[in-house]
Design a protein that fits this description.
By secondary structure, this protein is mainly alpha-helical. It has one domain (2-61). It has five helices and no strands. The protein has helices at 2-15, 20-29, 32-38, 40-43, 48-61. Helix 1 (2-15) crosses helix 5. The longest helix is centred in the first third of the chain and has 14 residues, at 2-15. It is globular and about 25 Å long.
C-alpha cells in the first residue's frame, strides 16, 4: 500500500507540477492521505488518472482547489 500511495501522490504532483514541499501542506489541509487510505480497497483497481481526478473531487468537496490552495 505504501508504494501505491507514493505513486498516487506523485501522479497528483506531476499533473500540477507541484514539488513535495508544495504538495504536503495541501495533502495535510484537506486530509488527502486518510481519504486515500480509507478508499484504498476500491481505488487501487483504477488507473492513476481516475485516482487523481477522484482526489481532486475530494479536495473540491473540502472547499479547496489544487492550484492556488490557501
Amino acid at each position: 500500500m505504501v508504494l501505491w500511495m507514493n505513486i498516487v501522490m506523485t501522479a497528483i504532483r506531476k499533473r500540477f507540477n507541484l514539488s513535495r514541499m508544495e504538495f504536503v501542506p495541501i495533502a495535510k489541509k484537506y486530509n488527502l492521505i486518510p481519504f486515500l487510505l480509507e478508499h484504498y480497497e476500491l481505488l487501487h483497481y483504477y488507473d492513476n488518472d481516475y485516482i487523481v481526478n477522484d482526489s481532486l473531487k475530494y479536495i473540491a468537496e473540502q472547499g479547496g482547489e489544487i492550484i492556488g490552495v490557501q
